Amino acid sequence: MRRRAITFIELLIVIGIVAIIFAFAFPAVQSARESSRRIQCQNNTRQTLIGIQSHHTTFGALPSFYNGTKLSYPLREWDLFHMHSWRVPLLPYVEQSALKETIAWDLLATESKNLEVAQTIVPTFICPSGNDPSEMGWGAKHGAFGTPFEQLTDHDKYRVVRSDYDAMAGIQKLPDLHVPDGDSIDYVTLGIWGWPVFSTGQTSNSRLSSYRQGKFRDVRDGLSNTIAIVERTGKPIEYTDGRPDTSSDPNANYPGQVGWSASNSYMWSINGNGIGVNDNNARGIYSFHAGGAYVGMADGAVRFLSESTDYETLIHLYGRSDGGLPERIR
């Protein structure tokens, strides 16, 4: 009995059909994966919010931006990059109690004895849509204060795992782009994260003379109307409009906090003037999700903010006592 072999034309047809099926299926698979990642990101945001609320219930205040170490007030801006961050007190609430017990609380978060902690991936602080967390960011050690970045050696640097979620102290609203000091908190609508006092005027260039932890009773606009945490993905690389910002100093990597365990300069924890959702991860809310980013509200709710959210709306969402949201956006 003679067997009929497949012809070359029939083979091409089969390959074409398979290619068409793959072309339709691949985007669907990618979409399903991103949907799963977004659900996980949403859950991470919610779990962090639960930790914040549990901390407030237990201690009567939100976690401090600046914890532990032997540094004392007034603090230089440089000091603010090396204390233990607001995330560290939350570790017991995100199933990381054992990790917190290993921290040398009286030492800087960036000292060698604490680097094993700083280089530990905490899943709750990582958005699965972001970069590989094993690609660590770096910062200059406390002892390298004043050394130009281009002169730093490996001995002067520490390497740490990032967080994709950040506590933003407020949002900047400059009345004029040419104001004398754009870093003054006189032009900042403060959020839920406390009360800073600077030693010589309200500017990041002076020392932070005191810092009081935020409390929910300070939020006059209502917890459901006020942002507690935001996505700030992409570290240690600076991203602008979805692309790495190649105009930035390549030695600086990310102009802000590079690790989850260490604190940050107060002014670098403020949403920049005119910076909207997914505009820039150095100065505002930023995600790798299409169309917007997740934010956690002070009442524990998680919202997905659209990229089209106007800046005035962001100001109202950040502010703890600026009159609340207009009726049209509640």
Automatic annotation (TrEMBL):
Residues 30-311 form the DUF1559 domain. InterPro entries: DUF1559, N_methyl_site, Pilin-like, Pre_pil_HX9DG_C. It comes from the Bacteria. NCBIfam families: IV_pilin_GFxxxE (TIGR02532), pre_pil_HX9DG (TIGR04294). This is DUF1559 domain-containing protein.
